[in-house]
């Protein structure tokens, strides 16, 4: 499907799941920008309702957002009988991989050049502030990393930091990185995600880049290129219906 550009807003159809006060609705993404999105769903929401939004791609990738309803209207014309509503949502918190979703929306599958990414937990260290911050990788690629912070609040967006990632069975990788995403603890809890910071590598030696790329390829071969599904909670016999 072709994507139509309107300013900095891009249009493409992806499945979405909306949640508000325990209510769940399914729909689809109509367009997306850095500030907001338009979705269409059968469930009725009100102005200023705060919605949790999960965007699902055909490849199985998932992106989470926190949003607020800024406008709504029923779908009219030939599709009026579908009972759909249009919602304009202002983004209150974006997924750490928002740029990845923008990339998927902006280009069709024949033009995409996907950067390999794996979901793996490795020890890491952020330096560039008075007190270095210990962290753990959540996902990793040759272009950047999302780190779950163990202590201290995240740095400011656009900060330049030195990051160390401890690869197994080899020397650590060091890089200079730019902060491109922040996920504060309060927002992360609402989205059921880990708080932390997304970094884009801006300076990485050839040796570090090679070792990082080789590690990512090994992890992909081991099936680490998809996020792990959350484990189901065990139910004791007394709790079973």
Structure description:
With 241 residues, the chain is mostly beta strands. The chain has 2 domains: 5-106, Thrombin, subunit H (Beta Barrel); 118-221, Thrombin, subunit H. The chain is built from 3 helices and 14 strands. The strands form 2 sheets. A 6-stranded antiparallel barrel has the order 2-3-4-7-6-5. Strands 9-10-11-14-13-12 form a 6-stranded antiparallel barrel. A hairpin with a 3-residue loop joins strand 10 and strand 11. The termini are far apart. Residues 1-7, 77-81, 108-113 and 230-241 have low confidence and may be disordered.
Task: Summarize the SSE layout with pairings.
Blueprint: E1 5-6, E2 9-20, E3 23-32, E4 36-41, E5 50-56, E6 62-74, E7 85-93, H1 98-106, E8 118-119, E9 123-127, E10 133-140, E11 144-149, E12 160-165, E13 173-183, H2 185-191, E14 196-203, H3 206-221
Antiparallel strand pairs: 1-2, 2-3, 2-5, 3-4, 4-7, 5-6, 6-7, 8-10, 9-10, 9-12, 10-11, 11-14, 12-13, 13-14
